[in-house]
Design a protein that fits this description.
Elements: E1 8-10, H1 12-25, E2 28-32, E3 42-46, E4 56-62, E5 71-76, H2 77-83, E6 86-94, E7 108-116
Parallel strand pairs: 1-6, 2-5
Antiparallel strand pairs: 2-3, 4-5, 6-7
């Protein structure tokens, strides 16, 4: 059965921030933090800067209006097993995170909100 609800989606504020970051840093990617820095914060990097492998799952290739290429969204396989029944909504909140994500100098941080699929 075709899955109509996307696994990962962006709020308008997150899409706006991605457009700004893309203009500065080039193609982008996300890796959902496993909790060592900002537990619910997806970390945004230049595409390919965070090395992914067999221990990671590609959840989405996000199309962002005004961004030429999809923004990939990765999560560790072990974390995905826990979150597999959720839809992730990437938002932006005020305040600086403690991770290495590209938006840190902007005074905001990405935040993942979740909703159980089907709810």
């Amino acid at each position: 059965m075709y899955e109509e609800t996307p696994r990962v989606e962006l709020t308008p504020a997150a899409a706006d921030l991605l457009r700004r970051l893309r203009a500065t840093h080039g193609p982008l990617m996300f890796h959902q933090s496993g909790g060592c820095c900002d537990g619910s914060a997806p970390m945004c990097y230049p595409e390919g800067e965070f090395r992914t492998g067999d221990a990671d799952v590609l959840l989405a290739e996000l199309d962002v209006e005004g961004v030429a290429e999809p923004v990939t969204f990765w999560m560790s396989r072990s974390q995905y097993e826990v979150w597999s029944h959720t839809r992730l909504i990437v938002d932006v909140v005020e305040g600086r995170g403690s991770g290495f994500s590209l938006e840190a100098p902007e005074g905001v941080r990405f935040l993942t909100r979740s909703r159980v699929v089907g709810a």
